[in-house]
Amino acid sequence: MAHPHHRALHAPPAARGPLLPSRCGAEVHPATPHRGHPLQKEQHPMSHEPLHPATRSREGFVGQLFAGKLRWDLVRAFPEQDAEERRQGDAVIAEVEQFLAAHVDPDEIERTGRIPPELREALRSRGYYKLQVEQALGGRGLSMLNTFRVIEAVMSVCLPVGYTLAIHSGLGAGAIIEAVQDGPLKDYVRGRVADGVISGWADTEPIGASVRRASTTAVPTEDGTAYVLNGEKVFIGNGSIADLLNVTATLQEGGREQISLFFVETSSPGFHVRAEHGLMGLRGLPIAALGFENVRVPKERMLAMAQEHWRNTPLLEPLSALGRMYIIVAASLALSKKCLQWSRGFLHRRLAQGRRLGDFDEIQRQVSATAAEVFAMESVARWSLTGVTADTLPLRWFEQVAAKNIASLTCARIADRTMSLLAAEGYETAESKAARGTTPVPLERTLRDARAFRVAGGVDFLVDHKAAREGLFSLYYPSASHAAELESPPAPLPVEEHLSPRNREHLQHTAREVHRLAKRSLDLSRRYPDAGVLYARQRTLILMNQLCNELFTMSVTLAHAAALASRGQPQADALADVYCTAARYRLEDLWRQADADAEPDFAGVSERWLSGDTLDFLLSDVLIRR
Ligand SMILES: Cc1cc2nc3c(=O)[nH]c(=O)nc-3n(C[C@H](O)[C@H](O)[C@H](O)COP(=O)(O)OP(=O)(O)OC[C@H]3O[C@@H](n4cnc5c(N)ncnc54)[C@H](O)[C@@H]3O)c2cc1C
């Protein structure tokens, strides 16, 4: 049976309207209702070429945005989930809802800090650790979007339970099957997935996740039949409950060094859980520090690769970006939607000066900002996942990379805003509220939980820096083949009939800003011919990536609103307007920072604090043990 991720959901030709020329020379379809697969051959003639994912992802919407083109023709018929596929997802969500109501007490998991083993086994026996696994292996056979939807639903009831499913589905052994070549290793992984193993991804080490070279080592045995692993990993999700782990380690063999990936059975002698981490949030998530002492791994359980680092192998990076969709983006959406709902409940209950709180100007702005941000995040998630299969995943790679920061930072804003809205009742624990008979909304827990997403999978500013280097600027170094196209201003986009006048203006503005960003990237690459010199100016890259993320989000939010309006649902237009208005203020601020030519002496202040005592007066009256 075909792997579900390979199912192509091509829209039948009859569903497409007459073709219009676009300013980019590509065929454009009018915004007629568009169902099914957005990644069609007409739009991406090379989509089945066996290219490196980075090359293919440049054909996608964000890849084109890096080149200065807002390809409205790609997004305007915003994809809708295929009806049959949606029914499958709805059915599993309904089933999961019943299961969670009967078996999961999120407050108890928060209080005890553990997911009971019986619950874990119940999740396993019902196949919730096999959401996207093909049915031939006993899995649910869900599409990527349905896997995401089910995980989001579980997270909305109990975040740590959803998180353990997400880590397994997103980064576990089954998640990376597509990157394993046919042969004994693939057969072994498939067999273990069929057995129902729980797994995770063990990469981070005490020295820091951003260090490229793993200090965990893999050394071939003398007889050449195995590798021996030694080292330590920290913050490994599912680490203390996993049967099988994908472990990164530095292999030295034949005078060559490779950072490779090993499939390690946790029953192997020498593997041990050193400790479970206690975290600020996500209480109950099994996350652990792990030790590897002479752990023997059969030779065929190393991922064969020609590259020096697993990150450079085709598909592994796109698959790990997909993993972050399940882990970070689904979680951010789940918590944000709950904040939106709690805001409504609170505002229904509370009055100020004898008036409904919801009648006040500032409150209306805050509530609409949260509603608009939820819609924008959903637009990013849907665009990044709808109709995507393993074959077409690279076309959404840059989108999925961007989604991590877009979602986690938006969720942090929403949780913080909701905290101010609910005021003291927001800051109070759910337990305390329940004890005094007030609605026990666990908002303070959400604020603690949400902070994890800006760290897990990479600290946000470091993710921005890496994404700018590997995404945006990979198009400008060593040289930009499209440089000449950027010399003249972009032609305006065709008027979008399904957007309000305000949103049409936002769209034209976004297109101009996309061009401005590309032109700035080109100018920077010319000013700094040595890419390393530009990359050392970290803030510049971070700002450029944040600009990209804002422009991507604005584009898909407008496209989603236009598509819904074309399907008779005009309500999202106002949400898109609220979102874009706020995003434009952020854009202005980002540009102001990017344009600044005279700056404070950051290096000097930092150095004075770190290397001397001239700034120690800052600590006056604070009693710190030295
Ligand atoms: C809830 C949670 C779940 C997790 N799950 C997993 C998991 O399942 N598997 C796994 O392997 N890991 C996991 N992690 C680890 C996570 O991926 C790392 O914590 C994250 O990538 C940050 O790495 P670090 O904590 O080692 O910080 P470091 O990388 O050590 O960074 C420390 C600080 O230095 C900064 N920094 C580092 N390098 C640079 C640089 N070049 N320039 C400027 N600043 C820099 C960072 O931004 C940060 O502020 C998890 C973490 C959390 C919180």
Automatic annotation (TrEMBL):
The protein's matches in Pfam families, at most eight in alphabetical order, are given as: Acyl-CoA_dh_1 (PF00441), Acyl-CoA_dh_M (PF02770), Acyl-CoA_dh_N (PF02771)
Coiled-coil stretches: none
UniProt KW tRNA processing keyword: no
Domain Acyl-CoA dehydrogenase/oxidase N-terminal spans what residues? 91-178
* Gene Ontology MF term list: acyl-CoA dehydrogenase activity; flavin adenine dinucleotide binding
Query: Where is each Acyl-CoA oxidase/dehydrogenase middle domain found?
Result: 204-295
Protein name (record)? Acyl-CoA dehydrogenase
Traced from the root, the source organism's taxonomic lineage reads:
Bacteria, Pseudomonadati, Myxococcota, Myxococcia, Myxococcales
